[in-house]
């Protein structure tokens, strides 16, 4: 019998590594190489630990940063911090909810009942992140709506944007995205989520890396899907 290939990170921008969690293509974790050590962004579902352990073998993780405290992003966060000794960083408006095990920030019942129940394991948050804080050389942007404390990470030098949720691209070709529509009830505040996504689209990123779906380089299309009005260059399809 052939040995199964261990999951590996794939470097998709300078010091930005994408790791596939399961279900494949729909859930990822991201590792950022920062000046103060490696940072793991989001930790998937409660049963993602085994895969995270394989991805992170040989890595020294200094911090685990969370884009938002929903069960499919923090399901294995407590495990990850225990396993690696990393400190936990998260948006200040989600931190107390995570610590108390109150993941009630979905407008719809499916999110509240199903996704909320995936985030029950608690631990203290070591760093409460705010707009303008730094994570592995990225700037923290507070983009509330999907949850009250949702964050995005932005590196202006090469215009790389890391988001937790956003338009979900199911195409493996980053230049030709295809979107998976999701119910708006997964947001805490759908109108707020729209406004935050417009803000991110207006940054004109060169690469968008999301925890759901595949990276996108056709970012004018990402911005359109996110609801941002971006000026098109004449003649562009
Ligand atoms: Zn999610």
From TrEMBL:
SMART domains: Lactamase_B. Signal peptide: none annotated. Keywords: Hydrolase. Residues 26-212 form the Metallo-beta-lactamase domain. PANTHER family: METALLO-BETA-LACTAMASE DOMAIN-CONTAINING, METALLO-BETA-LACTAMASE DOMAIN-CONTAINING PROTEIN. Gene3D superfamilies: Ribonuclease Z/Hydroxyacylglutathione hydrolase-like. InterPro entries: Metallo-B-lactamas, NDM-1-like, RibonucZ/Hydroxyglut_hydro. One of its GO terms (molecular function) is hydrolase activity. This is Glyoxylase-like metal-dependent hydrolase (Beta-lactamase superfamily II).
